[in-house]
């Protein structure tokens, strides 16, 4: 990689991967909006931008927020592996345990990484239910 191995490369890779998740959920959310609703909005004279911002996005909020939640939780899970390229994080504990065959470190690294992902998912789900 141009940026070498380390935190910068990990951030670039995780950001690129998350863009795919976000874009996919965004387009899916917009496609799930009933075409009759968008036709009605166009029928009352809304521009395409007004239809998007005032009709489609508000109706697709659940899918959009689910995409954000999925991207954040995936970043935590995949970010654990970033320790293998000297990017640091909770994966360092896991990979140190693998390198030294220390089962306690392997277990703690796995538990902490999975626990953080599960806790973050639960918190974002609670925020989603409160907001939406």
Question: How would you describe this structure to a colleague?
Answer:
It is elongated and about 70 Å long. The protein has a single domain, classed as MetI-like fold (Orthogonal Bundle), CATH 1.10.3720.10. It has helices at 7-31, 35-43, 48-59, 61-81, 91-100, 103-131. With 132 residues, it is mainly alpha-helical.
Short overview:
With 132 residues, the chain is an all-alpha fold. The chain has one domain (7-131): Orthogonal Bundle (MetI-like fold).
Element layout with pairings:
Blueprint: H1 7-31, H2 35-43, H3 48-59, H4 61-81, H5 91-100, H6 103-131
What share of the residues lie within helices? over 70%
By helix and strand content, what is the structural category?
A: mainly alpha
Count of the separate structural domains = 1
- CATH-defined architecture: Orthogonal Bundle
- Please work out how many helical segments DSSP would assign: 6
Distance between the termini: 41 Å
Quaternary structure state of the chains depicted: single chain
Question: What gross morphology would you assign?
Answer: elongated
* Rounded Rg: 20 Å
Strand-residue proportion: under 5%
Q: What is the CATH class name?
A: Mainly Alpha
**Which superfamily, in CATH terms, is the homologous superfamily?**
MetI-like
